Amino acid sequence: xxxxxxxxxxxxxxxxxxxxxxxxxxxxxxxxxxxxxxxxxxxxxxxxxxxxxxxxxxxxxxxxxxxxxxxxxxxxxxxxxxxxxxxxxxxxxxxxxxxxxxxxxxxxxxxxxxxxxxxxxxxxxxxxxxxxxxxxxxxxxxxxxxxxxxxx
Length: 152
Hints:
Blueprint: E1 4-9, H1 16-24, E2 29-32, H2 42-61, E3 66-70, H3 76-88, E4 92-97, H4 105-112, H5 116-125, H6 137-151
Parallel strand pairs: 1-3, 1-4, 2-3
Helix pairs in contact: 2-3, 4-5
């Protein structure tokens, strides 16, 4: 049986939720969303994402065949932990980006009930090119030091 994780990315008001609903129609699918009422309250936002990742890890450990992560995932580092964890546990991962080309920032704002300025900020910050994020320098230096000690 194939194990598959869908990582959905997109601005509020994009077609991400339509795609999510279509994928979620499969009864065996596990749905993961960070439930955030306000992006302004960083503490609540961070807590919602921690809970979502914990639920995701539990679904992976239970070897659920289809897991769907539906978060905004503006930056690569937002969704990379999901990709990394899933791959380490034998899952195939599909990263899907909801298109926004045909919608203005005003349309997205109205559709998602999010201020237009917030949509513009998210759009400007969106990382379109998916690549593996770099490790922080302190981790790289620690790894180099460990390798040197091993080679001695």
